[in-house]
Hints:
The protein is mainly alpha-helical.
Amino acid sequence: MTSASIWSLLLLIGVLLCICPALGRYLAAVFGGGPAPGDRFFCRIESRIYRLLRAGPDQGQRWGAYASSVLALSLLSMLGLYLLLRTRGSLPFNPIAAPNMSPMLAFDTAASFITGTNWQAYAGETGASTSRGWPDWW
């Protein structure tokens, strides 16, 4: 382990130690049912989302609506990942200049990640970018 990685680890631990108490108090307020910091801002956004979805905070979700939500999210996630893999040759932060995936390989990879099987038809080092080549500030 290099000194830079030790300093990075110590910095991460320090940031977590500073953030955890405040985050814990916030989560306790949110899940406790009382007023929480940021309610004036987030409640406005939340009420607009409820209105858009024609739902309410006290309204439950039946199994059919839940299944539709899961399928819609999976479809959007798969489409987004497929497009990312098909266009990655022209995207920034591609340190090994990995080319775009073929349509079938991109579909196969996206489907395997979305379904949780994580079956890959390529070696990770040849099909996906590694940390080599990232700028020092990243």
